[in-house]
Amino acid sequence: MKTGSSELLLNRTNFSSSSTQRFAVLSVMMNAKMKSRNVTENGDTVDDSILMTLVGNGEDLAPMVRHSFEMGKPENLLHQLKNVVKKKELEIEELCKLHYEEFIVAVDELRGVLVDAEELKSELASDNFRLQEIGSALLSRLEDLLESYSIKKNVTEAIRMSRICAEVLDLCIKCNKHVCEGQFYPALKAIDQIEKNYKKNIPIKTLRNLIEKRVPIIKNYIEKKVCGEINEWLVHIRSTSKDIGQKAIGFASSARQRNEDLLARQKKVEEESSLGLGDFTYSLDVEEIDENSVLEINLMPLYRAYHIHICLGIGDKFREYYYKNRTLQLSSDLQVSSVQNFLGSHQTYFAQIAGYFIIEDRVLRTAGDLLSANQVEAMWETAVNKLTLSLENQFSQMDTASHLLLVKDYVTLLGATLRQFGYDVGPILETLTNSRDKYHELLLAECKFQIKDAIINDDYKQMVMKEPEYQSNVLSFHLQTSDIMPDFPYVAPFSSMVPDCCRIIRSFIKDSVNYLSYGGQTKFFDFARKYLDKLLIDALNEAILTTVQSGSTDVSQAMQIAANISFLEHACDYFLQTAAKQCGVPARIIARPQTTLMAKMALKTSRDEAYLALLDLVNKKLTEHLALTENVNWIIDDVAQHKSDYMNAVISYIDSILSTAQHILPLDVVYKIGNGALEHINNSFMDTLVSDSVKRFTANAVMGINNDLKNLEQFADEKFHGTGLSEIYKEGSFRGCLLEVRQLINLLLSSQPENFMNPVIRMKNYDALDYKKVGIICEKYKDSPDGLFGSLANRGGKQSSQKKSMDVLKKRLKEFN
Hints:
Elements: H1 2-11, H2 17-33, H3 46-56, H4 62-71, H5 74-98, H6 100-180, H7 184-198, H8 205-274, H9 291-294, H10 300-311, H11 315-333, H12 342-366, H13 373-397, H14 401-419, H15 426-434, H16 436-456, E1 464-465, H17 467-473, E2 490-491, H18 497-516, H19 525-550, H20 555-583, H21 587-590, H22 598-626, H23 628-631, H24 645-664, H25 667-690, H26 699-722, H27 725-728, H28 739-749, H29 759-765, H30 771-780, H31 796-816
Antiparallel strand pairs: 1-2
Helix pairs in contact: 2-4, 3-5, 4-5, 6-7, 7-10, 8-10, 8-12, 8-14, 10-11, 12-13, 12-14, 13-15, 14-15, 14-16, 16-18, 16-19, 18-19, 18-20, 19-20, 19-22, 20-22, 20-24, 22-24, 22-25, 24-25, 24-26, 26-28, 30-31
């Protein structure tokens, strides 16, 4: 039992980690305490107590034994173990003494158990033998089964590999088919599947290597093919840009026309409403047009090419390629053809540019990140700079206003079109502003030539019109003198140059406003008025003034020109209203004094000069009719009892002049003409009497002049009242223009001519006479010597007294002078 217990304690090898750790600690403690052995109460050492505790707990002593050998002191451990064995033997002996009988019974039972164990051992041996026999057969079958499992595994792996290869080859076949059919995107999808799902898992190295080698070749081929297609598309889209631009500009033109029609209807309604013609209710129907649906732009090849390049992983390269090529196309499109005239090619030129940027806008909005907003903006800035330079150059070379207006109109439509797509067209429209003066200079020169031609070709005869002509020549320019419709045929107070010039000016206004009204501008009335003033002053007024001052017109022509100027001056209000209406300015604005035309004052000045020229011509004609030195016998012996022929001619001429003037000139002008003519007659008599051409005149000559003067005064009074001037000039008269010659005749025929020197009588009866002139004339007033019967006449005494008085007057005038 001791030996067995010792072997049991020494051979136990299984232990837990926790026991090992505890024994390690205990071993260290034992090693430390072996040097000092302390004796306990029972006479045992501490190490013996520890060892006893371990044995009692059934713990493994292998670590302790190993430690003792490692320390090189196995004797101490052996000694301790012997002490432990002795103590255990003593415990066993004591225990056996206490339980001897029970131990005997237990030994007997143990022997029985051993017998049973032997029987069980023999049974197990026989069962093991039979089991070995059966197991050998099963083991053989198991080996066959395992071999079958191995074959199955290999076959399954082969099938899996074959399936992978088949799928890869199927994708390769599809890829080849798509490439052959030009379906590059499905081909790239097949390649992408191969690369993502199969490339690393292809079990056959040859196939894997082949695929790795062919995939880049296929991608490169697809890239080249797509680049070729996109190059064809770039050529095609450039050729269709013109059509796209023309359609878009056509839409803008239609929209502008609709807006103009709408504005015209609105103005008409507002004018009728302001005139109190009634309340109006009207609705506006606006037809919306989806321009994107009308502008058919085929961008599918571009989308496809860009997507394919993204799939190839070279999207940046394609973006750069597209931007570069389109920029080159833009530079080419912006070049103005040196072979074709710009006027004939400007519509195509602008349509090409419009189409280009409409396409780029569509690409920007629909092609993802193919184009950036900054790139489009850069292209637009380049186009604006080159376009403005081209326009300025072309405008500077143009010498016809209609050509410039035609180009301007299309530039305006270009701006309206591209503004809808978000482009800033302000710099382009600014070019039109810079060419505004150039255009109006050309337009003014053309209209000036037309006005000169109209004046030169005018026959200066009153127009005779029927009703349609009255509508087009009078009412359309507000030239009517009354609101009542006249009888037809109607004799107008002006000649053909008036409506002709009005048409030219109205056309100028229309063309001027057409040029100024661009880019949605509204405040351009001041410019229109300025250029209208310039036309009326520099062209119309200057041409009329040149004609007036030319001296090549006769009296009737000069009178008609004066009448025409009056109507043209009146038409200035119509011209201003027309300009305001076309500029969209309300009528109340032009009613202000500061909005009047400066041309009215210029025409008024020209009209006054025309009146002076007319008066000058009338006076020249009167001088011809008077011819006083030839028609008057200044030393006649007998007094003529009938009207003088020259005075009849003068009266007849003045009557015809005033009658004609009464129909075509204002009454104040008729008054001026009458006054001027009679004043000229008055001055002609006075100048003739004063001049050296009359050396002497007699009383009979004075009496004849008195008779002629009475006839003229009677005619003057009748004409003054007959023309209605007496109602306007109540304190004036035509007779007053002859006052100087009348007072002179009265003085010469007076019985007491010396009373002229009396201040009171002179102020009352002779206030229009000049001392010096009277002195010169009186010196020439010498009655003829008495004839054979002259001394016998009854009037001799009177003449003698008058002669004495005249001599006194002559003497006193000499003293005074």
